[in-house]
Amino acid sequence: MYFVANWKMFGSIKSVNSLKKVISYSKIKKRKLNIIYCPPYTLIKSFLDKTKNSNIKIGAQDCHSHSKYGPFTGAVSSKMIKDLGCEFVIIGHSETRTINNNKKINLKIQAALSEKLNVIFCIGEKLIEKKNNKTKSVLKKQLLEGLKNINNLNNIIIAYEPVWSIGSGIIPTQNDLTKNIKFIKDTLKISKNNTKSKILYGGSVNPKNIKNLMRINNINGFLIGGASTNEKIFIDIMKKSIN
Length: 243
Ligand code: PGA
Known about the structure:
The chain is α/β, with parallel strands linked by helices. The chain has a single domain (2-242), classed as TIM Barrel, CATH 3.20.20. The chain is built from ten helices and eight strands. It has an eight-stranded parallel beta barrel with strand order 1-2-3-4-5-6-7-8, surrounded by five helices. Strand 3 (57-60), helix 3 (78-84) and strand 4 (88-91) form a beta-alpha-beta unit. The longest helix is centred in the C-terminal third of the chain and has 19 residues, at 174-192.
């Protein structure tokens, strides 16, 4: 199971201290958890140093579509992220989709893969799209356009995050989530002949709903925002996913 902590634009240098308990927790051998922290760029180096002797991996929250260096003020490339020591990068999160279309996201994924980063590729429908029964067509378009010209999905993890569920405390019904995850799996099978891709769920995951979410077929883990910035709550989620 994957537990990806997406810290968004939160955290100060002191926050690195809040990794202590998670690091100890990650060392308990019998639990096969893949814990990945995605702090803001400013904290990546501190997080990498702090987690050096643990199984915790570090990722960035986005990258530029140009993979190397260039005159792009304020931007960070996949080469730079890799150079720091990151192994992962989140691409296509809904909070970044306001300035990135599917085509741009596709270029970013290619840029990340060219630097041998693992990609956490986020897709998900907005509330209005859900209400208009457009969920499947939106997911399909995001998948096909986001993965255009990419045939090897070995280093891509899909994160299904309904936009209306992010930060709202509301999660999809068991039935909807099961259906949408299956739809994602089927789409990848038909379009990419891929049956192995890991699929995460993200959106308001917390210690109260984790047990129910664990019952959904084919979920390989979770992308967790708010609840991941508090180490006690984050550990609680991981513990409850097992018991
Ligand atoms: P949330 O965020 O857990 O705070 O809803 C999830 C995400 O945006 O990845």
